Amino acid sequence: MNFIFVVAFKVWITRIKRDPKKDFKVTESTKVCSEHFTPEDFISSSSQKRKLKNGACPSVFSWTSQTQERSLPSKRSKLQEEQEILEAERTATASEGEGKFDETDRDNFFSRAIQVDIEVACTHRFSINVLRSLCDSPGREVKYFSHFTGFKSYERFRMVLEFVLPDFNRSYVVSWDSKGAKQVRIDPNFLFDSDTEIGESSSESSEEEDPVTNDRKYDSNLSVEDDFLLVLMKLRLGLSTIDLAVRFNVSEATVSKLFTTWINYLYVRLGDLKIWPHRNVIIANMPPNFKEKYPNTVIIIDATELRIQTPSSLLRQSQSYSSYKSTNTFKSLIGVDAKGGIVFVSQLYTGSISDKEIVIRSGFLEILKNKVAVGEILAADAVMADKGFDIGDELKKVNLRLNIPPFLANQSAFSEGDVIKTQTVAQHRIHIERAIGKVRRFQIFSSEIPVTMFGIINQIWTVCCMLSNFVEPILD
């Protein structure tokens, strides 16, 4: 094989960042989009039927600067001679993309056989490799990965992915379009049922199934890293299905199935984690100022609400209407430790539920009772909350105390001690506000939750709360 051809071939493969030994095969119909060449690479840039000059190489990519690339550094004189021969042999009937393999003249293969077809669409897509190629400095890596994934580096991205999907083994993931997955589909009506937990009705039917049977095996045309990147971009940026389909060069149906499949997998995988540590661990890691004022406070709780699309049913509208937000919402109870790490997250309830009622219905009090029974929380430990959580009597039943701002009651004004206590509680409750703010940075919650998303909104909410624990902590 001609030396010039070998050099040029390797240069082209290197420039387009493809590996023929793995998933890329060069054939007679292989072409490179004309957008990757500079005007100086063509013999005639004004003609519709263009041909490349000898020695021309693709040089315009998202990971390269838009500067003119130099021709091949070696055999310059030989290439110049071949160009003169080619120009002499050109005819007006040759069209773009008509070049064929000419076994009798392989010396001129590079310049005469591989040509550019400007009618062929460029099949670029966004991927983890493209994202990494943009990170040519530590500062840009932090900037780009924080924006697209919420994590500050590719290393952290891979660490989290390896944690949720050991060895990147897809056999752990259940395909949402499989028979088994359809059996655990969540009925949106349960979101408005006061007596049934979301997803409770269908969980028993799927418990006995093999988690990795063939009909439930998940597969994807994207790499595992790209799957996870797509899911994080959906959550972090709130991108639409069609937007992600275009970015990743897949169908909208593929994006929808992939997202639902991964969200349900992450919900189960992360939901199995024990995120509420022993009281001794919490107290040992308290900030000094907090430990001085509230040494026995093991959790801070608060509620937050998500705006939803107004249901068509008047009954559903009434159930989900929040007088506090003056719109239809879902409401969740969040609990954090003294450093702002989320240790408890409830399911979503309708916006009309009160703060006290959501504490009771979420199972929070039952968890406290169990932890006291096994010694993970001691009698006389405390829960910190805002005024709306008037649960002092309920906590007394499990031998716990409530740290809450004082009420005015029959007084005409707060005493000096009450004012100081109110300010102190507010000062330390700021950690839960910041923790909720971390979850709110997932832009999927920045707009109304559509009715079409009600079926998986619990999973999405829980996953985002859990993922927020993997990003930078509120307090070091």
Summarize the structure in words:
With 476 residues, the protein is an alpha/beta fold. 41% of the residues lie in helices and 7% in strands. Strands 1, 2, 3, 4, 5, 6 and 7 form a seven-stranded mixed beta sheet that branches. A hairpin with a 5-residue loop joins strand 3 and strand 4. The relative contact order is 0.09.
Report low-confidence residues grouped into runs of 5 or more.
Answer: 91-121, 184-215
The tally of beta strands, per DSSP, is 7
The largest β sheet comes out as:
7 strands, mixed
Task: Give Rg in angstroms.
Answer: 30 Å
The tally of domains stands at 3
Overall form: elongated
Defining key terms:
alpha/beta; elongated; single chain; 7% strand; 41% helix
Describe how the helices and strands are arranged.
Layout: H1 3-16, H2 76-89, H3 109-112, H4 128-134, H5 138-148, H6 154-164, H7 179-182, H8 200-206, H9 224-237, H10 241-248, H11 252-271, H12 279-284, H13 288-293, E1 297-307, H14 314-320, E2 321-322, E3 327-336, E4 342-345, E5 349-350, H15 355-361, H16 364-374, E6 382-384, H17 392-396, E7 401-403, H18 416-440, H19 457-468
Parallel strand pairs: 1-6, 6-7
Antiparallel strand pairs: 1-3, 2-3, 3-4, 3-5
Short description:
By secondary structure, this protein is of the alpha/beta class.
